[in-house]
């Protein structure tokens, strides 16, 4: 009886993974190899289960790789992928530059105020993501709060053009995803034994050398986790570039949405999603394998 419940406990996560990830992935993959048609659903061929296995094989034989060729040959999608990678990478680095000092300060703060600091980091999650992005529109637009304040104190004479630019997209991504960077770094730094830093200083290391040789290295797992948590959703972000970046900001999330809902080209949109998933998954798998080999080598 105990082994039965043990198998259920182990198998349940895999079951949910299959239902919530593998099955939707297979559906999207199947649409990617289809052709667009003026029908509902807007792709063909459709599986005719009434004809049994022969009908299934016949439908599979009608699959095409044209959508993948089209996406790779069209410069729009290539530029969208490259632009998304660039914006996500820069946003991740900016988030790290802001999040690491915040996490370090929280980890070094007195124990009595750490729960308050954690609550302040998590507090934005209590508000709708969409409302928070809309709030930045009121701050960044030409007649918004930031320009009114800067003009009132005499720093600028004309409004700054930040809204509907990539700068606004960077601000929105950094603001919305900052907690995802701070929390894993804080969790790593909080468990660190700071006597190592004191020992390094006693042995002649400067404060900067001790930080880079001890604190930064011990915090590396949290930094990598935070970078992945920011970079992966940022590369496919749609809401922030659509609301803050305007029509001139090219990102793959906006392109994918346009193919689905404006052009109603589900096969091309599914192809774009599959390629994006490959771009994200392959480096992560390679990194995990390298980490596993490095761990085995150190044993």
Task: Describe the protein's architecture and organization.
The chain has 299 residues and is mainly alpha-helical. The protein contains 14 helices and 2 strands. Strand 1 and strand 2 form a beta hairpin. Helix 1 packs across helix 14. The longest helix is centred in the N-terminal third of the chain and has 34 residues. The two termini are 37 Å apart. Belongs to the binding-protein-dependent transport system permease family. CysTW subfamily. This is ABC transporter permease subunit. It is a multi-pass membrane protein. It is found in: Cell membrane.
Key terms:
299 residues, two-stranded antiparallel ribbon, 2 strands, ABC transporter permease subunit, transmembrane helix, transport, membrane, MetI-like
Quickly describe the structure.
With 299 residues, this protein is mostly helical.
Largest sheet: 2 strands, antiparallel
Order of helices and strands: HEEHHHHHHHHHHHHH
How much of the sequence lies in strands comes to under 5%
The overall strand count is 2
| Helix percentage | over 70%
């Amino acid at each position: 009886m105990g082994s039965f419940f043990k198998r259920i406990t182990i198998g349940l996560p895999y079951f949910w993974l299959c239902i919530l990830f593998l099955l939707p992935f297979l559906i999207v993959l199947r649409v990617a190899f289809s052709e667009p048609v003026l029908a509902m659903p807007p792709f063909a061929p459709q599986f005719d289960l009434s004809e049994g296995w022969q009908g299934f094989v016949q439908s599979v034989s009608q699959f095409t790789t044209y959508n993948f060729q089209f996406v790779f040959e069209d410069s729009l999608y290539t530029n969208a992928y490259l632009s998304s990678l660039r914006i996500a990478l820069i946003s991740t680095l900016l988030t790290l530059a802001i999040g690491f000092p915040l996490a370090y300060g929280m980890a070094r703060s007195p124990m009595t105020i750490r729960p308050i600091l954690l609550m302040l980091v998590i507090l934005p999650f209590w508000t709708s993501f969409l409302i928070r992005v809309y709030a930045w529109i009121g701050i960044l637009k030409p007649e918004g709060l930031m320009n009114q304040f800067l003009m009132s104190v005499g720093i600028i004479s004309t409004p700054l053009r930040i809204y509907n630019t990539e700068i606004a997209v960077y601000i929105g991504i950094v603001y919305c995803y900052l907690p995802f960077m701070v929390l894993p770094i804080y969790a790593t730094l909080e468990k660190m034994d700071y006597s190592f830093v004191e020992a390094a200083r006693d042995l002649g290391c400067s404060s900067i050398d001790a930080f880079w040789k001890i604190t930064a290295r011990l915090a590396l797992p949290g930094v990598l986790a935070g970078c992945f948590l920011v970079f992966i959703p940022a590369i496919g972000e749609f809401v922030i570039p659509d609301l803050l970046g305007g029509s001139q900001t090219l990102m793959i999330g906006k392109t994918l949405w346009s193919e689905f809902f404006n052009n109603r080209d589900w096969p091309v949109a599914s192809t774009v999603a599959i390629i994006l998933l490959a771009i994200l998954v392959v480096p992560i798998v390679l990194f995990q394998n390298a980490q596993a080999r490095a761990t085995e080598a150190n044993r």
